[in-house]
Design brief:
Helix content is 27%, strand content 21%. The chain has three helices and five strands. A five-stranded antiparallel sheet has the order 1-2-3-5-4, with helices on one face.
């Protein structure tokens, strides 16, 4: 599996940086966001490094599918049937760590459009 030695999320996946990990699978790691925006705010990252969701889908579509499966498992384990999945792609969309990640958000009113 490829990793970027300078990537924070790669370091979390490798266990070199601590995180509040709530779920792992062969392809993903899920951990609590350090700046939660809702009662449930977990990031799901693939173990394989790609900069964004489109790159992950091109490199290995099964990784992207596993992100959604993991998100569902995390939400269910926390007692939520309704949740939002958010992928930010690029700095202009507020992506700050350039390793594919999905925000799993639940536990409060989620208005539309998101802010």
């Amino acid at each position: 599996m490829s990793a970027d030695p300078d990537c924070l999320f790669c370091k979390i996946v490798a266990g070199d940086v601590p995180a509040d990990v709530v779920h792992t699978s062969e392809r993903t790691v899920a951990f609590r966001d350090i700046n939660p925006q809702a009662p449930l705010h977990v990031l799901v990252v693939p173990r394989h490094h790609e900069p964004n969701a489109a790159a992950t889908a091109s490199a290995d579509p099964l990784d992207l599918a596993e992100i959604a499966i993991t998100a569902r498992a995390v939400a269910a384990a926390e007692g939520y049937d309704d949740y939002r999945l958010v992928f930010n792609t690029g700095a202009g969309a507020q992506q700050t760590v350039f390793h594919t990640h999905c925000h799993v958000i639940a536990g409060r009113d989620l208005t539309w459009p998101p802010g």
